[in-house]
Amino acid sequence: MAESPFKADIERVQKEYSEKMTPGAIATIPGSSVINKTGSWRVFMPEFYKDKCVRCYLCYIYCPEPAIYLDEENYPVFDYDYCKGCGICANECPTDAIIMVRETK
Amino acid sequence: MPMRKVMKANEAAAWAAKLAKPKVIAAFPITPSTLVPEKISEFVADGELDAEFIKVESEHSAISACVGASAAGVRTFTATASQGLALMHEILFIAAGMRLPIVIAVGNRSLSAPINIWNDWQDSISERDTGWMQFYAENNQEALDLILIAYKVAEDERVLLPAMVGFDAFILTHTVEPVEIPDQELVDEFLGEYEPKHAYLDPARPITQGTLAFPAHYMEARYTLWEANENAKKVIDEVFAEFEKKFGRKYQKIEEYRTEDAEIIFVTMGSLAGTVKEYVDHLREKGIKAGAAKLTVYRPFPIEEVRALAKKAKVLALLEKNVTFSVGGALFQDFSRALINESEKPVIVDFILGLGGRDVTFKDLDEALAIAQKALNGEEFDEVNWIGLRKEIL
Ligand code: SF4
Ligand code: SF4
Fold first, then answer.
1. Which of A26, A34, A35 to mutate to probe the B interface, most B CBs <10 Å?
2. H or E element in which residue B77 lies
3. Pocket flag, ligand 2, residue A59 (CB < 6 Å)
4. How confident is the model at residue A18 (pLDDT cuts 50, 70, 90)?
5. Does domain A38-104 match CATH 3.30.70.20?
6. Looking at this predicted complex, what is its ipTM?
7. Which of A23, A32, A36 sits opposite B160 (nearest CB)?
8. Domains of chain B (ranges, CATH numbers)
9. Are A68 and A92 within 8 A, CB to CB?
10. For ligand 2, is residue A76 a contact (CB within 6 Å)?
């Protein structure tokens, strides 16, 4: 699996993230939301079937997190640290290349 | 030279806003404070105030627009009353939590049902736990002055809290009195240009405001809000002193009147303080040792001043135009709590009166005095008393 494009951000923010409370609890470090791993909320997870994928990127466009990025061959890759399991990608996929399955942790 | 004009408190509030030069005013008109945004929109239309006047579709939007503009880094203003303030309720928490120094003029009015447009303090008292500072004006001059003072305190780096300035519906909002309008240059010197240091939008310095806080951070955020309210107590005193030096009018968190050697001190807020001071004069003529005290600042609650006041009296008679469904009114709870651990404390008697614009006359105050005197003489008395109640129709 390709590496998350956020990897460098995550490392930077985790290093820099100040524990000091700012007035009004402002987040002063840009991109700090990357340390909030939305994948921990997930109940359903998208399962990807490469053979059905036509690389139309509807899933990539619609993912609200965004937890989908593209690998070297431009196929979608799912980042399960951030995929919250909403199923929008599966709903949008015209070829049923994405199937939502109940995740057991 | 300062200008003297005869005006209503609503106009005085609009003038205060004009002098403070907010960049954004968002308002939805509601009785009795409608004239405030009307007058401000005139100032803007005539080019006397360089500001964005946003006409919104509700008070919820008015305060939301103020939150947005304040978060962007400019001085903002709005005015409301009663159900309008209640409609702002959830956003009031957001403004305080985001530490945005917004100022609201509140024409203190009762809450429905039944619908009533007249004066009591139930609207702003209901917002006492939002984290906003609360000032109450006795007259139209105070309405103007306290708005300027509210900005200065709110924008102080040690405070950064929103503030509401209340003035009684119709008794002040629609009654004309001579009001001194200070010189613009002097106000500019006093307030200065608003320069936010923390919360403001700047593409060169991206930040997230009003963000999510997990359990690991939320309590600390609330603590800093509480701390800011504590800090405000000292800052308010400093600003009152500076205001007096610049404009010659003296303000105190609790203003005392003839409290020396007083046995009974009547405590109140807003326009009722004027009536009560006169009543105290009347009692003194009859040889009754009475005094008056007025809370100009209700939030942050001036606990030290309350304790100092309590040392001067045998009975504190609280006259309040609000009801909580705990014990008596809000002042009664605050005063009781402030004095609970004091070794020597006066007897506190609570009076609920003047709700929904009911007049408070000397006859009503006589009724309160009789009960306060019972307390003074060690006779039996009720802790909470509704004064001027028409018992015959109950
Ligand atoms: S399930 Fe939702 S969050 Fe996860 S990849 Fe699909 S669209 Fe994105
Ligand atoms: S929507 Fe379906 S077909 Fe299109 S790129 Fe995504 S997985 Fe492939």
1. A26
2. strand B76-80
3. yes
4. low
5. yes
6. 0.79
7. A23
8. 3-247 (3.40.50.970), 254-393 (3.40.50.920)
9. no
10. yes
